[in-house]
Amino acid sequence: MGNLFLPKEVRLGQNRVDELVEIAEALHMKKAFVLYSKSAVGQRLTTLQAQFTQAVFYGMPKGEPTTTMLQVALQHLMSEQCDGVIAIGGGSVMDLAKALAVLAKMPELTLSEIATTKKVERLPLVAVPTTAGTGSEATMVTVIIDEEKCMKLNPGHPALIPDVVILDAILTANVPKSVTAFTGLDALTHAIEAFVSTNATPLSDFYALEAVRLLTDHIEIVYEEPHNLAAREGMLLGSFYAGIAFSNASTNLAHATGRALGTKFHLPHGQSVALMHPFVVEYSMESCRERYDEIAEQIGLEQGEQLILYLQGLNDQFGVWQSAKNVVDQLTVETIKDMTKSALNGNGILTNRQVPTAQQIEQLFIQLRKRLQHKGDFAWYN
């Protein structure tokens, strides 16, 4: 049993971004709202503006999308009377674009009401990821930070899935190493968590395992060889498959704790999830050992326990632990309790095979603190 929700059309290959005008016309966009990442689009912006002479171009502010960013962009879109949305950028750009496409059509809705509304309408939507990645181009979820509540809202609805997705590896070739690492590890966590989720189905399992294979085959290559386009395309496709998998099966504890950590310390999402994932796998191992064994087999490992050390090794290799050293002194007892409360109030707790208590979540954050305090080579802490 199971359902599978997918984008209507996917275009894979180098220079497929040049087909945007054709796609916009097919979706009857007369005046597209092009939301883009300034750092990702770069010199290509001039070409795009020449192609889309009637479009409105809106540069995404830095940082993860917030409710304030959403309202400002929405007012601009509405005042320009745009009739479609094109997102070119990373997960933050696509998340903001998905929310915009819905609220421009249904301005009476709040973000929280999207998930509980039976029929959600939106403007035509095209997603062009420039990282591999959040998988947002494939998902029925948008993630927006509610600044008043100091938490991430992540309403889900099939209507949030884009109409058309373009997977063009050339757009990912100049991504900084740190972004390649953080987003790649985020994608790998999506795939693994989707496979061990309590909501997993044979349909989502297919995409999850294929994503694990693609991502682990290519993640170390793209980190060392940033302009290897074959490896970049493997990562992009793996991230897309992982997005399909977790969109249909859900993530779980690594994302629940990672969101709390990222929100508290303003860390990039992929970084915070990667920091928590090894500890979550260790905690969850006994509840779904056979599933972790299947994941290990895809990677070429002998058993599920080795997955913990594998993820730990990637964090070492990509400098993930070192990147978070500055938060060690802030991981106080009070802060850990606040993050635990935030994690328990978010998504991903009930889809974990072993549902954690507050004390167990606190222990995960304590393990992180011990690891970040450690100097020198890796040592595993229990």
Residue runs with pLDDT of under 50 for 5 or more positions: 376-382
Number of helices, counting only DSSP H or I runs of 4 residues or more? 16
| CATH homologous superfamily heading of the largest domain | Dehydroquinate synthase-like - alpha domain
Q: Supply the number of structural domains.
A: 2
Main β-sheet description = 6 strands, parallel
Structural class: alpha/beta
What is the count of β-strands?
8
In percent terms, what proportion of residues is strand? 5-15%
Give me the CATH architecture of the largest domain, please: Up-down Bundle
> Could you please say which CATH topology of the largest domain applies here?
Dehydroquinate synthase-like, alpha domain
Write the layout of secondary structure elements.
Layout: E1 9-12, H1 20-26, E2 32-36, H2 38-41, H3 44-51, E3 56-59, H4 67-79, E4 84-89, H5 91-105, H6 111-114, E5 125-129, E6 144-146, E7 151-153, E8 164-167, H7 177-196, H8 202-224, H9 229-249, H10 253-265, H11 269-284, H12 289-299, H13 305-317, H14 320-323, H15 333-345, H16 358-373
Parallel strand pairs: 1-8, 2-3, 2-4, 4-5, 5-8
Antiparallel strand pairs: 6-7
Helix pairs in contact: 4-5, 7-8, 7-9, 7-11, 8-9, 8-12, 10-11, 10-15, 11-13, 11-16, 15-16
